Amino acid sequence: MPELFDKHGGFRRLHSFTLATIVQIETLRFCRRFLTFDHRETDTKFYDPKGRQYDQMTQAARSGRQNIIEGSERSSTSKDTEMKLTDVARASLSELRGDFEILILDRNELPWSVHSPEAKAVNAISLDAAPFSDDMVHESAKHALVQRKKYAQWLDAKDVVVVANAMLIIIGRALNMLKSQIEAQGKAFEETGGFSERLMAKRLEARDKNQPPGPECPVCSKPMRQRKSAKGDFWGCSGFPDCKGTRPV
């Protein structure tokens, strides 16, 4: 029988979390560099008079990273919640990707083609495995900054379009990873069930240990256990819910 509580946490080892960390840091930096409240700077920056673009972009980036964390931490008691929060992370990063796309179009430019040398160069970058030991927060932050350096030539560029295009690709990679995570989480749910199902199975197992064995199930021949219902006691198969055989007491 599966363990009652799934392993939880471990998000710091995920490449999706590393990329989400880079995305949040670089979105904050991008907004400070290229968004302005001053209309006199519109030749070099995007005019954001009420700060709404800044707020929405930074909040979407934060939501992407934070929901990966929360989903991972909730995985021990709710696969359903883990999947939903992972999907929220994915939706938030998709929203952010849309903002970077519009910022490029606003400059009468186009996002890089996936066949362009620039896009191929960014996509060719591979992330290192997270080498953590006993200092997870410190080492996780250090790992993210080391991986960020691999994208530095684009993220540190003076051309806003270059930076935005690099962010589009990095976000796209994170989205693909999150999609794979959700699929893996769904498969794990199918195989082991949710926390409520495992809790019920554990309760039945503990109760059955305190009962003498009953007659054989007429359907599958497994030993039966005495059960209670509104209509009175009956023998139910110990293999329930896979087998629903019953006998009268």
Task: Compose a concise summary of this entry.
The chain is mainly alpha-helical and 249 residues long.
Reported by name, the CATH topology of the largest domain is: de novo design (two linked rop proteins)
Task: Please state how the strands of the largest beta sheet are arranged side by side.
Answer: 3-4-5
Q: How many independent structural domains?
A: 2
Coarse shape: elongated
Give the name of the CATH superfamily of the largest domain: 23S rRNA-intervening sequence
CATH architecture of the largest domain: Up-down Bundle
**What's the total number of strands?**
5
Number of helical runs? 8
The major pleated sheet works out as: 3 strands, antiparallel
Radius of gyration: 26 Å
Q: In percent, how much strand structure appears in the residues?
A: 5-15%
What's the overall average pLDDT, rounded? Answer: 86
Structural class: mainly alpha
Highest-level CATH class of the largest domain = Mainly Alpha
